[in-house]
């Protein structure tokens, strides 16, 4: 409140002494300093932060999490195994619900809901094996053997693929994927 009064008073003095053009320049310079400072305070949400925000909005178990630009797409299965929500988490951590379904088949999600190792624990295990930033986490049970697929972008720009055991948390398979320009190679 005091800052607003000081800026207003300074603008009035500048207007009286220097005229309208000088006053406009002074106010514009102050507004530019304020606008420049605001983005510096914002930090993009990490995978771990996106998962936490999604679970706060829709309690359950993260099934998948994927970054698309500055937005995280997070699928959450309800604790009962029947509910499902598709959520978006912005860079600031704001959650937007894209879709919600409450009529799912709990038997299909039983292994995920009862897994000892959650998506959050799988991310930690993958990061312990390959430091960097998680870009994707996905529950995979297509071939009858459940595991977490975690992609980590290393500081060197390479993407590391890790398979994390949902019972032990052990990184069972990992390898270097592609460079950040995604050459489509798979070195697993």
Description:
β1 and β2 form a beta hairpin. The chain is α+β, with helices and mostly antiparallel strands and 188 residues long. The longest helix has 22 residues. The chain is built from five helices and eight strands; from the N terminus they run αααββββααββββ.
Q: What is the strand tally?
A: 8
The share of residues in helices is: 25-40%
Which range does the strand content fall in?
Answer: 25-35%
Strand order of the largest sheet: 4-3-2-1-5-6-7-8
What is the structural class?
alpha+beta
The helix-strand sequence is HHHEEEEHHEEEE
Average pLDDT, rounded to a whole number, is 79
The span between the termini is 59 Å
Radius of gyration from the alpha-carbon trace, in angstroms: 24 Å
Main β-sheet, in a few words? Answer: 8 strands, antiparallel
Shape: globular
> How large is the count of helical segments?
5
Low-confidence stretches: 1-15, 21-42, 179-188
Features of this protein?
5 helices, disordered N terminus, alpha+beta, 188 residues, 8 strands, disordered C terminus, eight-stranded antiparallel sheet
What is the topology?
Blueprint (H helix, E strand, L loop, with lengths): L1 H17 L1 H22 L5 H11 L2 E9 L2 E8 L5 E6 L5 E7 L8 H5 L4 H11 L3 E8 L6 E7 L5 E6 L6 E6 L12
Antiparallel strand pairs: 1-2, 1-5, 2-3, 3-4, 5-6, 6-7, 7-8
Helix pairs in contact: 1-2
């Amino acid at each position: 409140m005091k800052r607003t009064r000081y800026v207003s008073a300074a603008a009035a003095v500048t207007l009286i002494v220097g005229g309208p053009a000088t006053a406009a320049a002074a106010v514009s310079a102050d507004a530019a300093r304020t606008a420049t400072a605001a983005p510096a305070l914002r930090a993009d949400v990490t995978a771990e932060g996106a998962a936490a925000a999604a679970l706060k909005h829709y309690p359950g178990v993260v099934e998948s999490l994927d970054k698309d630009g500055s937005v995280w797409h997070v699928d959450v299965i309800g604790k009962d195994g029947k509910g499902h929500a598709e959520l978006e988490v912005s860079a600031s951590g704001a959650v937007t619900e894209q879709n919600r379904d409450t009529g799912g088949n709990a038997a299909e999600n039983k292994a995920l809901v009862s897994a000892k190792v959650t998506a959050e624990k799988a991310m930690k295990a993958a990061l312990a094996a390959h430091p960097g930033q998680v870009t994707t986490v996905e529950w995979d049970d297509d071939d009858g053997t459940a595991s977490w697929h975690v992609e980590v972008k290393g500081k060197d720009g390479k993407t590391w693929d890790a398979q994390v055991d949902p019972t032990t948390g052990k990184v069972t398979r990992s390898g270097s994927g592609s460079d950040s320009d995604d050459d489509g190679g798979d070195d697993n």
